[in-house]
């Protein structure tokens, strides 16, 4: 019997790639290694409902379709090395596993900044276990300092205010979520947060945590001291690519793939999917992009499964190059943000409807024309924009 | 036949499912999701895509 396809990472992209391998005729074995003790589960609720209402891991788990019932899940198993030329991966327990093909789906982890001071009381949010820990810590009335004003920081700020916590957000950026929203919509979102009592310290960073055994405060670079019972660090992410080093791959920001999501320069059939993949997109020609939006693992899994099934069968990938429209959503208070395209890559933007601090639609452009749109409480009205973006297809 | 159910407590009316099967899922004028509760087996691929696309994972299919 031939060696299995090995999937490194057990998140949404791993699941969708496995389903697609089956759909595209691959009948051999599939073995997934995941560091967490959980099978694939849905992460968006972790910054919202899981914090405000609590949630069981089982309730977030994606259903496993019959086609992937025979996939082997090796959980709490960390892949520490990969030798593509030898077609093996090595796990932290020292075992080496042979493979016929590889799915790199190891995702991202929160970036840590080397800030001196006590470690206890500093938390991250990426996994369900992180969310359950954070929920325990967010007992009503606690003083929360959030380092970082991206989506995770802002969603947690909104959830924590609803739970009655005091919230300070510290960020080097000049407005929250400035990439991809731009400064005007970022300022509009800041106004929503400020109305709900969040205090922003923008253009600032934390130089030191104060306290003895546990954090009791954060010292900012302008000398301000914020009292804190808890600090959430949400300053972006790092792609988990260390295990792929030594194979001559381009790992400069995630794993570089071709237009079929096949890993560039791999000597064996290998694809990269999800947050870790830096990929071309036929809708937006130019530099390959690494996009951490929720809809991408599903779209990439479908394309990558077809690609890998072809390569394992000794054929070249067929069909359309990867061309999914990136999309994200965010809920903060009664504000629903919805985005299509790549607004973060825009060279200019303009307000198409409404006001930046109310309900609105903002269009994002570059030299090629419309490349993104973001609506605030405007789901239905975004549909023509979505169609226009999909019509960019060459 | 495929029976379609939507957990309306979980549904946030993002409308992602509508892109995958426009005649089955639609947002009405108030932006609230409306859907046809049954579809032919031939629609399985589209319906699975719609269920996959739901950020709240609110769509369940039964055959």
Helices and strands, with pairings:
The complex is a heterodimer of chains A (394) and B (63).
Chain A: E1 5-8, H1 12-23, E2 30-34, H2 49-52, H3 57-60, E3 72-75, E4 79-83, E5 88-91, E6 96-98, E7 101-104, E8 108-110, E9 122-123, H4 128-137, E10 143-147, H5 151-162, E11 166-171, H6 178-181, H7 183-195, E12 199-202, E13 206-210, E14 217-220, E15 225-227, E16 230-233, E17 237-239, E18 255-256, E19 270-272, E20 277-278, H8 295-312, E21 327-332, E22 335-341, E23 348-354, E24 360-366, E25 369-376, H9 383-390
Parallel strand pairs in A: 1-2, 1-7, 2-3, 7-19, 9-16, 10-11, 10-16, 11-12, 18-20
Antiparallel strand pairs in A: 4-5, 5-6, 8-17, 13-14, 14-15, 21-22, 22-25, 23-24, 24-25
Helix pairs in contact in A: 1-8
Chain B: E1 2-6, H1 16-20, E2 25-27, E3 33-35, E4 38-39, H2 44-53, E5 59-62
Antiparallel strand pairs in B: 1-4, 1-5, 2-3
Any overview of this molecule?
Chain A has 9 helices and 25 strands. In chain A, strand 13 and strand 14 form a beta hairpin. Chain A is of the alpha/beta class. In chain A, helix 1 (12-23) packs across helix 8 (295-312). Chain B has 63 residues and is an alpha+beta fold. Chain B contains 2 helices and 5 strands. In chain B, a hairpin with a 5-residue loop joins strand 2 and strand 3 (33-35). The A-B interface holds A 16, 42, 44-45, 60, 62, 65, 294-295, 298, 327, 329, 331, 336, 338, 379-380, 383, 386 and B 12-16, 19, 27, 29, 31, 48, 52-53, 55-57.
In summary, what is this structure?
With 394 residues, chain A is an alpha/beta fold. Chain A contains 9 helices and 25 strands. The model of chain A has no long low-confidence stretch (mean pLDDT 96).
Instruction: Please give the number of β-strands of chain B.
Output: 5
Strand percent estimate of chain B: 25-35%
User: If interface size is counted as residues with C-beta under 8 Å from the partner's C-beta, which chains form the largest one?
Assistant: A-B, 19 and 15 residues
The percent range for strand residues of chain A is 25-35%
For the sheet with most strands of chain B, the description reads: 3 strands, antiparallel
Specify the CATH architecture of chain B: 2-Layer Sandwich
Low-confidence parts of chain B: none
CATH topology (level 3) name of chain B: Alpha-Beta Plaits
The coarse silhouette of chain B is: globular
Number of domains of chain B: 1
Euclidean distance between termini CA atoms of chain B: 6 Å
CATH hierarchy: architecture of the largest domain in chain A: 3-Layer(bba) Sandwich
């Amino acid at each position: 019997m031939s060696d299995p396809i090995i999937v490194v990472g057990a998140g949404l992209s791993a699941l969708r790639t496995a389903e697609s391998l089956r759909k595209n005729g691959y009948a051999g074995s599939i073995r997934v290694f995941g560091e967490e003790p959980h099978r694939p589960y849905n992460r968006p609720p972790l910054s919202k409902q899981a914090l405000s209402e609590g949630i069981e891991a089982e309730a977030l788990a994606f259903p496993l379709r019959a086609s992937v019932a025979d996939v082997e899940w090796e959980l709490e198993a960390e892949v520490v090395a990969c030798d593509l030329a030898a077609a093996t991966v090595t796990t932290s327990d020292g075992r080496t596993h042979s493979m016929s093909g590889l799915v790199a789906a190891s995702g991202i982890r929160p970036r840590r900044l080397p800030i001196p001071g006590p470690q206890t009381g500093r938390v991250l949010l990426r996994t369900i276990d992180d969310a359950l820990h954070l929920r325990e810590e967010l007992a009503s009335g606690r003083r929360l300092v959030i380092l970082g004003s991206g989506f995770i920081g802002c969603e947690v700020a909104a959830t924590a205010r609803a739970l009655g916590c005091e919230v300070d957000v510290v960020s080097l950026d000049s407005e929250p979520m400035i990439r991809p929203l731009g400064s005007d919509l970022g300022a509009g979102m800041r106004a929503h947060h400020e109305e709900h009592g969040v205090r922003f310290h923008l253009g600032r960073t934390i130089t030191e945590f104060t306290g003895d055994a546990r954090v009791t405060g954060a010292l900012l670079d302008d000398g301000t001291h914020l009292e804190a019972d808890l600090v959430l660090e949400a300053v972006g992410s790092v792609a988990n690519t260390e295990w792929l080093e030594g194979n001559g791959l381009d790992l400069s920001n995630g794993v570089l793939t071709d237009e079929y999501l096949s890993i560039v320069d791999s000597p064996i059939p290998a694809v990269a999917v999800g947050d870790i993949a830096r990929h071309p997109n036929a809708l937006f020609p130019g530099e390959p992009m690494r996009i951490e939006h929720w809809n991408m693992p599903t779209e990439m899994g479908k394309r990558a499964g077809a690609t890998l099934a072809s390569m394992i069968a000794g054929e070249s990938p067929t069909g359309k190059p990867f061309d999914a429209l990136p999309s994200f959503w965010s809920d903060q208070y009664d504000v629903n943000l919805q985005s299509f395209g790549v607004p973060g890559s825009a060279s200019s933007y303009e307000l198409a409807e409404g006001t930046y601090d109310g309900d609105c639609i903002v269009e994002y452009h570059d030299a090629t024309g419309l490349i993104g749109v973001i609506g605030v409480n405007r789901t239905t009205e975004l549909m023509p924009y979505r169609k226009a973006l999909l019509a960019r297809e060459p | 036949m495929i029976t379609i159910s939507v957990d309306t407590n979980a549904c946030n009316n993002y409308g992602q499912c509508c892109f995958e099967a426009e005649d089955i899922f639609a947002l009405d004028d108030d932006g609230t999701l409306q859907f046809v509760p049954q579809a032919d087996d031939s629609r399985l691929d589209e319906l699975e895509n719609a269920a996959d696309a739901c950020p709240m994972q609110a769509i369940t299919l039964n055959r």
